[in-house]
Amino acid sequence: MTSRYERISAESVEAVAGMTAGLASTIAVHPLDIIKTRMQLDTSPNPLLNSTRSVFGDILRNEGPTRIRALYRGLSPNLLGNSAGWGLYFLWYKQGQDLVRKTRGYSREQKLTNVDYLMASAGAGGLSAVLTNPIWVVKTRMISTSSATEGAYPSMIYGFKSIWQTEGIRGYFHGLIPALFGVTHGALYFLAYENIKIWQRARNGKDELSNTDTSIAATLSKVFAGTATYPSQVVRSRLQSYDPALKVQRKSLGVVRIMRDLWRNEGALGFYKGLIPNLARVIPSTCVTFLVYENTRWALPRIFNDGMAEAKTAL
Fold first, then answer.
1. What pTM, to 2 d.p., does this model score?
2. Where are the transmembrane segments (predicted)?
């Protein structure tokens, strides 16, 4: 009977907390993700602040069948990608830290160095980026086109099937190179996040942080990492886009060619198209993600393990 009441593992806690956080944050800010992607794919040399309002207004006026459905087009792959991505990331990030401790012979009380955090984060980010890239290809193609556009993907499953039929397995990995470069985002983020939490604990004189402290740490870290690595998102979106009229990927120019054309035709600001809605998206998204993550990670062992202990005692 005891096998029914085994304690929940630390890895399971990390995975469930990450998936829950990813789901909550994605639903909260999905419309801003659509605006950001549309701006990233706009090749006109518009100023950085010129398009946010017009893109939002255009979606509300011209796409449907209702405004809510227009603002939440592509939600399914976004939910799947973020829940799976965050779940895998937090799972492997925790395992990466454990591996670093074991490899370096650290004691359980010994703190990891900045390099240790970077190694754990980069490894977790690289693995999750490869496994979730097919989801992001479908998501990019759905949210970059209106549902009324001829040849646009009507659903996530249709998108997966269409890519397989027209582009083969390689089609699922468009944009993987800038996505892997974007792993530095996660590494920079967690480097900043862990250090800000250490500073907050020292300032507060206690180990547990409040929700406000967690939100501040998450927001500052996200703004820092997001701004530093944002150009890779623009390049990735352009690699993953496709021509809905032809139902195939747009002519692939490669990472170097896209970066060169961006610089020549749109200037330095071209690499930061969509940054404003992205920051408007990631700040509340990050706060929601890490509040849900930290609180789920705190509550889950207490709910599950304490409940199991009571049930075991009753037997």
1. 0.74
2. 117-137, 172-193
H/E run at residue 259: helix 254-266
Tell me the two tokens of residue 268: 């330095």
Any idea of the CA torsion for 200, 276, 234, 266, to the nearest 10 degrees? -130
Q: For residue 236, is pLDDT > 60?
A: yes
SS3 state of residue 242: strand
pLDDT tens for each residue of 90-149: 788 888 888 988 888 888 778 888 788 888 888 888 999 999 999 999 999 999 888 888
- Under DSSP, the state recorded for 243 is E
What pLDDT, in 10s, does the model give residues 42-79? 887 655 445 777 788 888 888 877 788 888 899 999 98
Residue 207 CB coordination number (10 Å): 7
Q: Which amino acid is at 194?
A: E
DSSP characters over 122-159: HHHHHHHHHHHHHHHHHHHHHHTS-TTSTT--SSHHHH
Q: Which fold has domain 10-310?
A: Mitochondrial carrier fold (1.50.40)
Rg (CA), the chain: 21
d(CA 40, CA 300): 39
- The pair of three-digit structure tokens given for residue 58, joined into one six-digit string: 């255009």
Helix (H, G, I), strand (E, B) or coil at 296: helix
The token pair that represents 172 in the structure block: 């699922």
Evaluate whether 125 touches 186 at the Cβ level (below 8 Å): yes
